[in-house]
Amino acid sequence: MGQVAVFESVKAMRAAVAGWHAAGEKVALVPTMGALHQGHIALVTEAQKHAKHVIVSIFVNPTQFAPHEDFKKYPRTFEGDRAQLEAVGADAIFFPPVEEMYPPGFATRILLLGPAAVGLDDRFRPTHFEGVATVCCKLFTQSRADLAVFGEKDYQQLKVVTRMAADLDLGIEIVPLATFREPDGLAMSSRNRYLSPEERALAPLLHRVMQALAARLRNRDDLFRAVGEAQSEIITAGFELDYLEARHAETLAPVTSLADGPIRILVAARLGATRLIDNIAV
Ligand code: PAF
Asked: Which residues form the active site (predicted)?
């Protein structure tokens, strides 16, 4: 595969995109915070199906981390990331320094309602989606990409970004991609590398519990009882549970039975210092 270009400025990225667009060629963006794993590479491969050129942004976005969260220790592995992106044939990496994204005086945030205010991750990370939406909005307008690919692993994020792109007429299509999993079912995440061997062995339980819960709901088991028992199983296994809920798959509103529409099960739980999130369709 050819060398992947690295753009550190919006100007350089836009010049490349303008050239591709002038040739009538589509451009896809894959937003990431680096520390790439097979799940990210699957996003790039998906992007390549939709567009001739793929830009992967690597930016650990400070505005989506609360002061007590892992911004400082978030893994930064640029050389390894670059090698993986070269191997998969990505065209370019957008790797801006923080001042390119947030110059002195930066004072804007996006106010989110709808799927960003449903009492799931927003309840535990109250400023997180505002930071995600702000940086994604910037990445979309900076790159002028035709589409962006997001993983379903961060399901609430996917819904928030999709809503924002539509509501603000950002002129970009959001393409979702199913969660990439380890063979034992654990959803791939850059944060999995924080897990101790014991925590790593326990972590796939989340997926197994969600699968069993989904089967019970499909069999029209009582939703409140089934969700409550699944929550207890996770807590008894040693997780600190933030939430395990059955929600409407599109609006993320609470549901009371299968009749309330397509259902998504969403979970967030902590093992030691590591917070894991996951979700599956019912
Ligand atoms: O999902 C992520 O890695 C981040 O939230 C994103 C979308 C790159 C924004 O910083």
From this structure: 40
Cβ–Cβ under 8 Å, residues 39 and 180: yes
Testing ligand 1's pocket by substitution, the residue of 40, 152, 154 carrying the most ligand atoms inside 8 A of its CB is: 154
Q: Is 189 annotated as a binding residue?
A: yes
Check if the beta carbon of residue 230 is closer than 8 Å to that of residue 213: yes
What domain range is 271 assigned to?
A: 190-276
Q: Is residue 68 part of a domain?
A: yes
The binding-site residues of ligand 1, defined as CB within 6 angstroms of any ligand atom, are 31-33, 61, 64, 132, 135-136, 154, 157
Output the CA 128–ligand 1 centroid distance in Å.
Answer: 10
DSSP 194: G
Distance CA 60, CA 78 (A): 11
Q: What is the CATH number of the domain that holds 47?
A: 3.40.50.620
The answer to whether residues 137 and 257 belong to one domain is no
Residues 213 and 157 in one domain: no
Q: Is residue 153 marked as binding?
A: yes
How confident is the prediction along the chain (282 residues), in pLDDT tens digits per residue?
A: 679 999 999 999 999 999 999 999 999 999 999 999 999 999 999 999 999 999 999 999 999 999 999 999 999 999 999 999 999 999 999 999 999 999 999 999 999 999 999 999 999 999 999 999 999 999 999 999 999 999 999 999 999 999 999 999 999 999 999 999 999 999 999 999 999 999 999 999 999 999 999 999 999 999 999 999 999 999 999 999 999 999 999 999 999 998 998 999 999 999 999 999 999 999
Closest residue by Cα to atom 2, ligand 1, is 32
Domain check: are 165 and 58 in the same one?
yes
The residues, ordered by sequence, that sit 6+ positions from 132 with a Cβ below 8 Å of its Cβ are 61, 64, 157, 160, 161
